[in-house]
Amino acid sequence: MVKGNEQASEILRRRYYKTKRRYVVFAGSVLIQFIGVAMPSAMLGIVYVDMTREFRAEASQAALMLSLFRGIAFGGGVLGEMVIRRVGDFPCMIGGALGGSLTLLASAFAPNMVTIVVLIGVGTGS
């Protein structure tokens, strides 16, 4: 039975390689990676200037927000891997999306720069 499953899997793999679907999947993956990682990181750089003006904060405080966001988003994979193994993929994706969205929404009503650093840097980054 195992040999039959392996043969069926091999036939499906060959069919997949003959189609153009793999290029569409690759392009979609690259697009989602760009939207999820590159755009927020680049847009926080633009918001950085407005933050210093609006709250009359030092540049180092605004840079801390950006640094925490990038550091946690890109370096948090080690902790994220342990959580994903324990809980599963889907609950982690839903929890991360809801948590990031809620902290981003809450940061719109933040009264000072420290709150924004915590909400966007730590909350949205994770």
Automatic annotation (TrEMBL):
SUPFAM superfamilies, sorted: MFS general substrate transporter
InterPro entries to which the protein is assigned, alphabetical: MFS_trans_sf
Coiled coil regions, renumbered to chain: none
Highest taxon in the source lineage: Eukaryota
Keywords: Membrane, Transmembrane, Transmembrane helix
Descriptive protein name: Major facilitator superfamily (MFS) profile domain-containing protein
Ranges that cross the membrane: 23-49, 61-84, 96-122
